[in-house]
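Lab notebook, bench 4. Still working through the backlog of constructs that have no structural model yet. Next entry is a single chain of 332 residues. Request: give me the structure tokens for it.
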Amino acid sequence: MNYIGSKYSLMEFLKDTIGNVTGYSDGEGRVFADLFAGTGVVGASYKEMGYDVISNDIQYYSYVLNKHLIENVPITDDSPLGYLNSLEGIEGFIYKNYCAGSNSGRNYFTDINGKKCDAIRTKLEEMRGRDIDDSVYFYFLASLVNSIDKYANTASVYGAFLKHIKKSAQKDFKLELLPVISGKKGKVYNKDINALIREIKGDILYLDPPYNSRQYCANYHVLETVARYDDPVLSSKTGLRNYESQKSAYCSKKTVDKVFDDLIAHANFKYIFLSYNNEGLMNLDAIKAIMSKYGKYACYTREYRRFKADKDENRQIAADSTTEYIHCLIKE
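Model written out:
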């Protein structure tokens, strides 16, 4: 998934840094926590390395993705795939609210793909607890969230839809299964991180909070609705669902330093690693000052290409690249 803040392209840098600081060559008997988990790229990688992974995200679609990637282990039943892909489309919530043919005024998916998504999502709910257990349910629901995103008629995020259907969105939707990650069965949460940190402990804590004021709940609201399928009341031209309860204090200049300090203070982990870039709401001096209060601090950097959600001519972009920092704390 093309996701804001994804660490997919930075995994080598991240793993090298964590390995060099901790001296750990594998995860045997160790706990790794990924508490702003997003699409689960980091947690899944550490699961493969043998760690006991704790994953968390306040967004429910992220929780769904990680329920599969972190908690499911081989072998997971994939037999419903053919049946689900053969379903005829229905006029459900996705079609009625996110497709142009329903006169919703929104154009996130073609009518055919919206109806197909509705059919699969509805059937999964019917099958849960009757034909499939929760592990298979989250396997297919996570795969649905990941798959339907590839057919979205957007410029990457769901802050707006395109007027005309782009080429990739014109293809007929097909459910494709995510991989089942080898490793130990982990634990996934859908909680506020500053509350969860008081309940868990481990060896390595990895933090990848939002860097700016863009709320993930607004940028990925359609995927949130696909995941929850809870018939929310929608507002505005873009069909936003109410996301007050999911707003992150890490997206506000006024609150980010305070909540970050609280998080580090209550973290019961020996090693803490924070991914952040040079354009984030917290400046480098503030991060250093906060982390240094609790132990030995160091910082490592790497330049990488910035995330672009639309074409260059549509907005002012300062540079093609930005600097990613991994702030390290050995807690005393």
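Notes after review: The two ends are 37 Å apart (CA to CA). Confidence is low (pLDDT under 50) at residues 310-317. Flag for follow-up if needed.
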